[in-house]
Predict the structure.
Amino acid sequence: MQGELTEIDIRSILQLVELGQRTGQLLVETYACPTDRTDDRTWYVFFLNGQVVYAGNPAAGLSRLRGFLASYGLEKDFQRITTMPDSVANAPEYGALWQLLENRVITTTQAKEILQGMIQETLFDLLSLRQGYFIFEMGAPLTPQLVTLPVMPIVATTLQQVQEWKQWYPQVHSPEQIPLIVDAEALQSALPTGTVKTLLSFVDGQASLRQIARGLNRDVLAVTRALHPCIQRGWIQFLEDDRTRTSRWNYSASTPRPMPCVACLDDAATVRHSVENILERHGYRSVVLDHPVTALSQFFTHKPDLILCDITMPELDGYEVCAMLRQSSYFRQTPIVMLTGLDGFIDRVRAQMVGATDYLAKPFGEEELVTIVEKYVGLGQIESSKSSESTEIASKEEPWPEI
C-alpha cells in the first residue's frame, strides 16, 4: 500500500492498517519543495496486528528520548546506552529506551509513559500533514513490544488536539518553534511570581515548545495554551529555526512562502483570459481551465490555494465540481469561490450546501476579483487577522493558565 497524501489522508491509512490487523511499518515522507529534497522530513510508525507499537522521526536521533528522560531527572543516565541490537536497527530510539529499562534506569511505568508520549507526538505531526508520500510494508514486528495501542482512539484524541492547535495560527504554527522572553518586566508585573520563575527557567531561546513540554512533563497544548496570552501581548516571541523555517506542513505569517496559486475553471475564454491577466499583474500564480471533467485531475496536479469555479458549464456544473472536490481530504479546506451570472438567493444557498466558500457575480472588475482573492489567500487576510487579534486583546483580559 503506497501513494500520495493528496489521494488519501493519514487517518484513513491508519484505519485501514487497524481494520486489516496488519503487522509492519508505515513510512511517511514530506518535503519543503518538490524540486528540493534537502529538507525531507520522515516518520515511521510500527504496527503489530493493527495496533501501534512505536512511532518516531528517525532524523531526531536520541535527542527526543533525552528530553523525556529530563522530565524524570534522569538525563545524566543517558550515557548508559550502548550498541543497539539488530532487531531495532531501524528504530534506535526504541532500542535505547529498552536498554534503559533493562538496565533499570527507568521503571516499566516510566518506559510506557515515554513510549506513549513518543507515539502521540508523532501522530500529531502526521495528522497535521496535508501533503507527502506514504508506503506501508508488511513485515516482521518490531521486537520486543512494551505497549500496543489501538489506533482509532488515539487518532480521535490527536485530531482534537490538531483542531485546537489551529486556533493559534498564525502566531503559533509548529510545536518546534522556539519561544524567547523579550519583555521580562511586563511578565513580572502581570504574572504570579511562581509562573514567572517557571517561564524564565524554560523559555530561554534554546528549547522548542515541544522540548519545554517534555521538560515540564506536560502536554504541548497545555504549555502553548499557557504561553499564548504572553505571545499575543508581544512579551514572548519566536526565534526562527531550521526546523520551522522551511517546514511545509504549516506556515507562519512571518515565514516566507511562495505566492498563492489561484485556479480558475470557466468555459468562457474571455473570463479565463481576464482572470489570468489580473492575477498575474498582482503577482499571483494562476491556472486557467476550460473543461470541468479534465479540470478535476488538473486540480490535483496544480494543488491551488484558491479555486474560482463557474457554475454553468457543460457535462458537470460548478455545484457538482465543488461537491466532488469537497469529498477529497486535500480540498476540504481549500476556498472555493463560485463565479456566476446568477444572482438569486436560491443559487447562493445551493452553493453553500455543496461546500462553496463564497461567490463572485459576473461581470466583475479587477478590484472585485483582487479583493476576494486577498480575502482568502492574500496578505490582506493576514493583516486583517492581526488587526482583529489586537482589538480582541485590548478589549478583554484572558485568565492566565497554569504552566
